């Protein structure tokens, strides 16, 4: 496989096809070496239009979805970004290239360790990795952008409350097969605007609140 040809095809045929037209985002995804973040057994899927298994029921999101996340949040240099669900570290690397400072939370220690190795191999700094449960997040008014990479079966307001005024949150809400990617903007200390972006499917965050089960 010609890696650079495959990378360019990924950008042109998948990411752009998903209406990702922000040139900063496209350049970033072309610069961060995605193949370094894919588990060895799935290296041939590095540029495929699919999610990639990472173990523990978790996945590396498809290039198109990652492009939409980056475009929706559009982090700027100097902004502080929170990522919930480090996974392979690829999205954290892209966010760091765009913003400069990323705090990434991962509940599974081995995924966090692998992500650190991947980021080092790719020569990317500016990412602080933390092994912790994001469902205990208590931060308020802190982040310019937040990317929640696992789905939330039930929307959890703790993440939008961690935004600064003017900040943006990306989240995937619902249960399969009907999940919705949403963008939340904090427009005032007591006001948030929610917008639907697209439909997709992603594994739920570990320990995320589930919809109640009814018994008869």
Could you describe the 3D structure shown?
The protein is an alpha/beta fold. It has a single domain, classed as Vaccinia Virus protein VP39 (Rossmann fold), CATH 3.40.50. The chain has 6 helices and 9 strands, in the order H-H-E-E-H-E-H-E-H-E-E-H-E-E-E. The strands form 2 sheets. It has a 7-stranded mixed beta sheet. Strand 6, helix 6 and strand 7 form a beta-alpha-beta unit. The protein starts with a helix and ends in a 16-residue tail after the last strand. The model has no long low-confidence stretch (mean pLDDT 95).
Largest sheet: 7 strands, mixed
Rg from Cα? 16 Å
By CATH, the architecture is named 3-Layer(aba) Sandwich
| Percent in strands | 25-35%
Task: Give the N-to-C terminal Cα separation.
Answer: 56 Å
The low-confidence parts are none
Look at the structure and give the CATH class.
Alpha Beta
Could you give me the name of the CATH homologous superfamily? Answer: Vaccinia Virus protein VP39
Shape assignment = globular
> Percent range for helical residues?
25-40%
Question: Would you list the SSEs in sequence order as H and E?
Answer: HHEEHEHEHEEHEEE
What class do helices, strands and sheet pairing give?
alpha/beta
In brief:
The chain has 216 residues and is α/β, with parallel strands linked by helices.
From the structure above, extract its key features.
6 helices, two-stranded antiparallel ribbon, seven-stranded mixed sheet, 216 residues, alpha/beta, Rossmann fold
């Amino acid at each position: 496989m010609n890696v650079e040809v495959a990378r360019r095809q990924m950008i042109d045929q998948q990411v752009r096809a998903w209406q990702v037209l922000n040139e900063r985002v496209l350049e970033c995804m072309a610069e961060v070496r995605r193949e370094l973040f894919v588990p060895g057994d799935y290296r041939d899927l590095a540029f495929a239009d699919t999610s990639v298994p990472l173990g523990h029921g978790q996945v590396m999101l498809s290039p198109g979805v990652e492009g939409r996340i980056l475009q929706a949040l559009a982090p700027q240099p100097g902004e502080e970004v929170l990522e919930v669900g480090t996974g392979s570290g690829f999205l954290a690397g892209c966010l760091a290239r765009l913003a400069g400072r990323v705090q990434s939370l991962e509940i599974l220690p081995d995924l966090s360790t692998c992500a650190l190795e991947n980021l080092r191999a790719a020569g990317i700094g500016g990412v602080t990795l933390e092994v912790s449960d994001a469902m205990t997040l208590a931060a308020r008014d802190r982040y310019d952008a937040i990317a929640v990479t696992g789905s939330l079966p039930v929307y959890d307001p703790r993440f939008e409350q961690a935004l600064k005024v003017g900040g943006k949150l990306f989240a995937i809400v619902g249960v399969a097969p009907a999940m919705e990617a949403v963008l939340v903007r904090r427009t005032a200390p007591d006001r948030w605007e929610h917008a639907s972006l697209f439909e997709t499917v992603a594994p739920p965050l570990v320990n995320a609140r589930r919809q109640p089960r009814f018994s008869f």
